UniProtKB/TrEMBL annotation:
One of its GO terms (molecular function) is hydrolase activity. Keywords: Endonuclease, Hydrolase, Nuclease. This is YicC family protein. Residues 5-157 form the Endoribonuclease YicC-like N-terminal domain. Belongs to the YicC/YloC family. Coiled coil: none annotated. Its cofactor is a divalent metal cation. InterPro entries: YicC-like_C (IPR013551), YicC-like_N (IPR013527), YicC/YloC-like (IPR005229). The lineage of its organism: Bacteria, Bacillati, Bacillota, Bacilli, Bacillales. Residues 178-292 form the Endoribonuclease YicC-like C-terminal domain. Pfam families: YicC-like_C (PF08340), YicC-like_N (PF03755).
Length: 292
């Protein structure tokens, strides 16, 4: 799909090997594709697999992948690890016996055992290979949802770009029309200035000066190039694959042509149209930079 934003979000859950894997994929604008994966330390060996999975689905953007793994039965059912409980009871009795000489009551020993870091219980571990299938399934589903969100946002951005391109095309047509009237407006201004100065008007010489002046400020080539850029933009929006970089280049060229027209022309009507065109192009640039 041609129009795809670089902003999106997806979330998915999968289960396997008695574990529940939750995956979140968040994407924002970036010049290139940058994937950051946040995995529990014991499954860090799966990071490259996650990265490749995301890279196969996206071409540009900053992608943050958040993965959490927990026992699948941690919610909804209460379970007692009787062996662990027996071990803790023996540990408490041993602590009471060892500290009896200090006069500490059993309640005090129990309270200190609850102090953070005093009592440590090893967490259940699952080999990466056992959880790999569920983990990658969750990441793939979350990444697909993020891609779908990027596509929906991209369509809205491209629809807005097409509307702005149509507005710019009207401005370019107005520039062409305004340029056609420049010689006559120049002749009229020069005639008025000569008359105000009390000088006689030599029509032949007047037209000669008008033609020379108008030729220096001619914008025909810039207008043609602007129309060509608009055609290129329309073709890019109608094509397949990532278009953000291409659109960014096209919009820069449009800005360059408008700057040239503004620098060459001293006609007020053209100057106003150049300002209007620059406003539209700047809005287009902001939208193009959001596309993949």
């Amino acid at each position: 799909m041609a129009c795809c934003s670089m902003t999106g979000y997806g979330q998915a859950v999968a289960e396997g090997a008695g574990m529940r894997v939750s995956a979140e994929v968040r994407t924002v604008n970036h010049r290139f594709l940058e994937v950051a994966v946040r995995l529990p330390r014991e499954w860090i060996s799966l990071e490259e697999d996650v990265r490749k999975l995301v890279q196969a689905r996206m071409a540009r953007g900053r992608v943050d992948v958040y993965i959490a793994v927990e026992p699948a039965d941690a919610e909804g059912r209460a379970r007692v690890d009787w062996d662990l409980l027996a071990s803790l009871c023996r540990l408490e009795a041993k602590a009471v016996s060892r500290l009896a000489s200090s006069g500490m009551a059993p309640e005090g020993v129990r309270a200190w055992l609850q102090y953070p870091g005093v009592l440590q219980v090893a967490a259940r571990t699952v080999p990466p290979d056992e959880v790999r299938g569920a983990l990658l399934h969750a990441v793939a589903a979350a990444a697909d949802k993020a891609v779908q969100a990027r596509a929906r946002e991209g369509e809205r951005l491209c629809a807005d770009l097409r509307a702005k391109a149509a507005a710019l095309a009207e401005t370019v047509q107005a520039l062409r029309a305004a340029a056609d009237g420049v010689p006559e407006r120049l002749r009229q201004r020069l005639r008025e200035r000569l008359a105000a100065a009390g000088l006689d008007v030599d029509e032949a010489r007047l037209w000669q000066e008008v033609v020379l002046y108008a030729d220096r400020g001619a914008i025909d080539e810039e207008v043609v190039r602007l129309q060509s850029h608009l055609a290129e933009l329309a073709a890019a929006l109608a094509g397949d694959g990532p278009v953000g970089r291409r659109l960014d280049f096209i919009v820069q060229e449009m800005q360059r042509e408008l700057n040239t027209i503004g620098a060459k022309s001293t006609d007020a009507a053209i100057s106003r149209l150049v300002v209007d065109g620059k406003v539209i192009v700047e809005q287009m640039r902001e939208q193009a930079q959001n596309l993949e």
